[in-house]
Amino acid sequence: MAGRDLRALFSTNDRTLTTAEAFTNRQAQWELVASALAEHLRHVSDPGFDVEDLERPRNNVIVFHGVGGIGKTTLSRKLEAALAGADQRPAQWGEPAWSGEHILPVRIDLSRSAGASFEDLVLTIRAALAELGHPLAAFDIALRRYWEQQHPGESLEEYLSRGGLAARFGKAMPQQMQSALSDVAQALLLPGTVGSAVGALTGSLVKALRERRQTVRALAGCARLEDLLEAEPDLDALSFYPHLLAWELAQLPAEKKVAPVVLLDTFEDVGDRTHRDLERLIQRVVWLMPNVFFIVTGRSRLQWADPGLQGQLDYTGPIAWPGLASPAGSVPAARATRPAGYGRQVLVGDFSPEDCDDHLARRLTRDGRPLIGADIRQVITARSHGLPLYLDLAVMRFLELRRTNHTPHPADFDHDFPALIARTLSDLTPDERHVLRSVALFDSFDLNLATAAAGFQHEAPALRLIERPFVRENPFGIWPYHLHGLIRSTIRGADDHADDRWSPRDWQQAAHRALAALGTQWQAHTGRDRNLLVGCLRQGLALARDFRLDLGWLADASWAYIGDSVWEPLAPPSGPSGPSGPSGSIELDTAADALVETLSALFRRQHEHRTRTIERLTAVIDSERLPAELRDVAVYYRAKAHRDLGHTQASQHGMRQVADAGGRLAPPARRGLAHLSRLAGDFPTALAIADTLGWAGRHHRVRGDVLWVQGDMERAAAAYTAARTEAEEHGIAGERATSQAQHALVIAFTDPARATDELELTEHLLAGLGLRTTTFTAKIAALVRDAGSTTAQIDDRGRLLRAEIHTNGIVAASALLELALAFHHAVQAEQAEVSSAIGRLHELVQGSDYAYYCDLAHFMAGLPLPDVSTARWIDGEGPTRARWRALVAARRTQNLHGA
Which residues have a Cβ under 8 Å from the Cβ of 112 and sit 6 or more positions away? Predict the structure, then answer.
């Protein structure tokens, strides 16, 4: 299925190089055509089908639309060849359901470069039908009359030869027309030659039809022939003549029956959304020939099913064209669940990576082997986003590099092609071009964003633009529209040679408008819409970074993001993505750079070692790019990372710095100081600080954190419940999940059956939040719930969890895990294993933070402390030891009764 690629052939002197127009499989599209055509053939063969019924809905058209360069013309040509005969059909396309039917494909190029007129379209269809070897008298008489009226002195035969139709379809058509005229003249007993008396013949025929003479009974069956012959033979009348052609086809004897398939390519050149004169004429042809199947390929969907076009086109609305009214898509619904004609507007999708590689491998070969290496093919495929035009341009670049004695390397194809811009902009109005460049600033957008970014007061250009095939729609997204990936990157990144190209200042102003529009959408939303917040931040941060814009509303939005403690991935890709963006590296040159890095570090700390978090936040702090309050964010979370690693002094210094500054993070920083007191074993001080924190400092959770290590599980559970309730009242999902995980942990020590329900609730509240430390707490709580069991594989689960926690470098989680394992072995009275757990705890805490966990492990197992404890228990060491020992005894009893 590959022809000669002449452009490539004439781009090199290398005669050993084999070039081919590689056709990548479009099996899905073929299956849609085959299914639709089979349905059409069943419909027209039904005894109740009437070719003269002008009111019945039409399902005789299928539309393939897509961006320029997606391969629509290639698809049209391959469909024509496949319909012409099995020997031209790719083997993988399979045998169609209509085997044995006489299919007659007729492909017509409607592009401006082809120069085809409406007359040419009608003549092409008639010329193709000449292969039937049968005159089509009703149509031929009307056409001859039209021709002599509109082209006096110009021979139709010469016109067909000059336009190439005679060479394409043979010279039988003029002969058949002459035969038809002669037969009618003879039936009417007209003297003289027919060629010089078409007007007289037509008049006599009309009179005979009116009088219902037996001599013209064959033509009398065409109810509208008389009206068409009496009408002025102009272009408008010509557009109705295909009705006569359809009627003649219906009269053919069974042995001459044929199923014409007309392929109309490059339909976007028929006209625009304002000038529909030619489109109206072509639509009439489709409507008036219900026994002919039409395959339309073009950049845009057909709007014929839009009732708003009534008056611009003759036949409009979803009742007239039910298949065209269905939502566009690449795969219609299963036939058993859809009405006839459903899903006849089909988006031609991008090539898969495998198809891209196959295309590139077969385009240029030497001795049967691909000339373009696999490493280069991989880069081109990734850059192409599956657009065939990009693949073709990359092949030409490959040949150009070789022609200049440069050995192509993968880096040579990290490249944008300005030709893609010209192809995309070619049929857009100036306003649509302006909107297109504006929305290239967005990952996704809606009409409001598009209009505001363009600086327009009216939405009409944006409404027209979203109908273009390079604008994709996701109805479930925050903003439903986005540009085709390659089109967007090329418009923003390639040198633009268009007449209306934007200057760097134009891009900068558009970025200002786009950022303001995002801020307006976020600020106008009165409810707590987390998805909208994150979406606005993602896009806004990218704009502010790439175009060095002031933070503005991004600062308040960042506080809202941080306050929820959810930590979705937020930071945009690193590096420049706009024509006037920073030349770029990871250096923090602007406040936007620093804010992007800060928020990225906060998200990534859930997935990477805390040491890396400290490094990133230290770079932000040292850059001094952030305003003071946002700088506190970096200082505070660096202090938290230090605490997780057991760096007490560094953590305390950072927390004190933020608390003394008195900003928005002062209450959490004071909470951090309380935590540090707790980690050091100074529980009375930590409890006293908790009483001063209030909701902003998460006072209930801090109390719970102090109480549960005292073994006072009942009061700790009540504190965590109060913390979860407050978080629900304030709508803080992260805090709610964290409090619930701690609640599940303390319940797991006292009531394993109830703990299962609490853990299910914890899992539900954690869904989608990405809170790594809290997730570890929940997993450890599950181990505590199962402590003492001989079938729960506690040791194996503990080893896996220990490795996972180690990867993240969270000392607190590691210490809690070893404490949970000590509890399990204490319940089973396995003193050696308890001693091993205590040894691991000693290695982790090294006599500093969480040193009291070693004390708790001794309490559980009833072991004396080897040294004097440094912990300051709320009501003394003795009561605390007794409570922990009682928890172990209670679990043994529970397990015994459970067994």
Answer: 269
